Amino acid sequence: MSEAHEHRLKRLRMRAWRRGTKEMDLILGPWADASLRTLPAEALDRFERLLEENDQELYGWISGQQGRPPGDLEGLIAEIGAHARARHLPFSPQVGD
Q1: pLDDT tens-digit profile of 4-15?
Q2: Which of 17, 20, 73, 75 is the most buried (most CB within 10 A)?
Q3: DSSP string, the chain
Q4: What is the pLDDT of residue 88?
Q5: Which domains are assigned to the chain?
Q6: Average pLDDT rounded to a whole number, residues 13-20
Q7: Who's near 76: CB < 8 A, 6+ residues apart?
Q8: More confident residue, 76 or 89
Q9: Mean pLDDT of 41-68
C-alpha cells in the first residue's frame, strides 16, 4: 500500500527540519514549508533522495563551497540555495534611497 500524500508531506517536512546540523535545518525547513505542497510526485521523489545525502555535502553544494551535486539534484539544490539566500541576505537600500 502506498503512503498517503499528506502523510508523505508531513514526513518530508519533519525530515527537512530535523537534520543533523542546525544550518541545514534552517535551509531545508523553510524551503520545505514553502514548496512541498506544490511539488509534483517526481519532484517529491527527488527531494526525498536529497534528504538521504549527508549534511556536510548538502551544505557544501548549496553554499557553492563544494563541487557540483549529482546531476539529478542540481536544479533542486540551486532552487533551495536561492530560497535560502533570499531569506537571509540583509536589506541593502537602493542607490538614491
Answers
A1: 999 999 999 999
A2: 73
A3: -PPPHHHHHHHHHHHHHS-SSHHHHHHHHHHHHHHGGG--HHHHHHHHHHHTS-HHHHHHHHHTSS-PPPGGGHHHHHHHHHHHHHHHSPP-PPTT-
A4: 74
A5: 5-86 (1.10.150.250)
A6: 96
A7: 43, 46, 47, 50
A8: 76
A9: 94
